[in-house]
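Re-run with default settings, no changes from the original entry. Doing this only to confirm the output is reproducible before filing.
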Amino acid sequence: MRQLKPHEQKLLRKVNLYQWKRDDNNVREAKIIRKYGIQDREDYTRYNKLSGLVTKVVAQLRKLPASDEERIKMTEVLLDKLYTMGVIPTASSLDKCVELSASSFARRRLSVVVTRNHFTEQVSQANRYIEQGHISIGPDVVTDPAMHVTREMEDCLQWSQGSKVKRNVMEFNEELDDFELMGPLWLYLGLALALRAREFRCRVCCMRGASAAASPRFVIGSRSPARLSPYQRPSSSLSSSAQSARKMVNPIDALGQGSRLMVKEPAIVLTEKETAVFKVIMDTIHHFQLNTVPRAAGGWVRDKLLGKESDDIDIAVDDMSGETFAYKVKDFLATTSPNASCSSVGVVRANPDQSKHLETATLRVLDISLDVNNLRTETYTQDSRIPVVALGTPQEDASRRDFTINALFYNLRTASVEDFTGKGLEDLRAGIIRTPLEPTITFQDDPLRILRAVRFSTRLGFRLDDGIVKAASDPNIYGLLLTKVSRERWGV
């Protein structure tokens, strides 16, 4: 037997062989304890026993006939309980219960949920904050990092009142908001200056026209050199240079002088991923025997018509909420294709006080992000500026969107482009940013659309409609932009 080398002896001294044998060499246990910040080893043992117990219960239930009333009742109770606890992604099948492990329960620990919701960056830091009393669920402060957090409890997770960490976070966010506020303000200032430049150009043209009529002898001839506008390039012809000297380019019009994007035919060519995702949506409708007409909407349709690719698709449904339809898609994939790539469903709640009127469900299917919502119509009462949102028709939904080029739909049933405003395709061909309704009404609904108009104009090389420029100069609209729109949405 050869003698151990120094590095081998060093490694051997670090290993307690007796303890290693007693722990059954459980590397997976140590990995889970370290990953989820489990402070008590008994917690891992408890999670392991729970997952094993559930597996045994499922095995006993499957021995009963599928039509047995007791099996059906107990299956519903078990699935509902586990789904409420958050340890299974969907309550559609017992197959999810068999996949339970210690990690399924460890992921619902308070410290892990706090980290997943971006309160902290590391689980160890979350453990420390919880023990110090910085985290509360509803009004109650929780100091146990091992507390199991259900789906309902996760919605009530927040910083505790009087927490110094919460105060520091709020102060930092306020400073960040002030910094990010400057960017959109400069955009709005540029829009206002461009409007003033247009008015100045009109006055100069009127003055020049009156001067030329009063003194016809002052005519720029071929022998006198013409003074060029800084916006114009020199021409080989002096006569054309003289004409360009009388022309001032409006900065607003200059935004639309980029490469013109032409749309000859309203046809959309789908990629393989898009075809697969749309097939999943249609198969979901057939599986649940729905009468839903799904439509791709918004920026995805616009970009596809302009020859640009996008992996973010807005889906509008006409007979249910976006959240309901999103869960049907997820349940369909979980039942028919368990190995298919599908994320959990997230819901962005409506906030009318901050001009966020529409509730949106988000999920990722086959590596494509889907934002699902319903077609909507809005009505206002006399004593409130907050609209009453209800299911609407495609025509009503298109009229409430920000711009005509974003009000186009792609019908998944007919595989055709729909333009319910009658102006979307025309404006897309002409390169114009226009609102479906009167610009003042559109901007009062969501003042952030002023900044979106400028961004679309610069990004696509489109020209702003005169009505948008006029409405954007209204001080009342700018006041709504500062007071009605949350700071987080300024970066939209």
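Residues 106 and 193 are 57 Å apart (CA to CA). Residues 212-264, 352-356, 381-385 have pLDDT under 50 and may be disordered.
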